[in-house]
Amino acid sequence: MAVQDIVKYSFKETFSLSTVAFEKACTIDHSAKQNAYSIYWIQEGQGTYNIDFEQYTFSDNVLFFLSPGQVFTVDSEKIKTAYKLTFVKDFYCIQTHDKEVACNGILFNNIYETPFVKPCKKDTAKLNFILESLIDEFQQEETAQYDMLQAYLKQFIIHAVRVKKENHVIKEDAETRLFKDFSLLVEQNFKTMHSVTDYANRLGISPKSISKHFQKMGAKTPSDFIKNRIILEAKRLLIYTDFTVKEIAFELGFNDPAYFTRFFTKAMQKSPLQFKKDY
Fold this sequence. Notes:
Elements: E1 3-11, E2 15-22, E3 31-33, E4 37-51, E5 54-59, E6 62-66, E7 71-87, H1 98-101, E8 116-117, H2 121-140, H3 145-167, H4 174-189, H5 196-203, H6 207-217, H7 222-240, H8 245-251, H9 257-268, H10 272-278
Antiparallel strand pairs: 1-2, 2-7, 3-7, 4-5, 4-6, 4-7, 6-8
């Protein structure tokens, strides 16, 4: 592996910035389940990544965002310049700041759309300036460093949200807001709440209304949405943990492991153990 330079700056193991510069194009093989929020910025390079079992190909100047629990695998990459920002909830809580920044469900915790964002020349200059400011602040070790670092991270995320909105039409109508609220609620509760009625009660509307909203948007049915999220987590646990099928069933809120096996097999056309073996 011809790595010329990898520099990592960190703050109390809650926030870090890594800068990567390769002497020449090379391939790194790695696979990991994320345990923090991560922002990758590939400034120069190309490759193919698998994120939650979906394949994405990219080339030059792309940002992508990963949330805790997501599975990230490198098929191939030839990277010249890249940055990685990693932070935990204790450092910056995207849910707490969502009204200000609106990144929850757009950049992070959005497993239903492409995770890639491509900044233009002007946006690239702004993001570069913030990164340079972050590196400078990491090196200062002055008072109130936490506040300064958090402020720069927040600026970076805000600019990334703006870039996302420039490249993807993000509607703010009632259907879209409900879809976002529903998807975030599923993300938080899919291990314990499996029925549309449970979510409808939490949202204060009828299951039929949710179905109509989804239909208007051309989205999957609410029940399929919940089922797909459970299946995704089952696949993550099968591949990246040593849990037995029985343990995975209980982890995902199934009282009957045999029913979970039938549920998984119907969705994937193969049993949990066969899926693990094939993968």
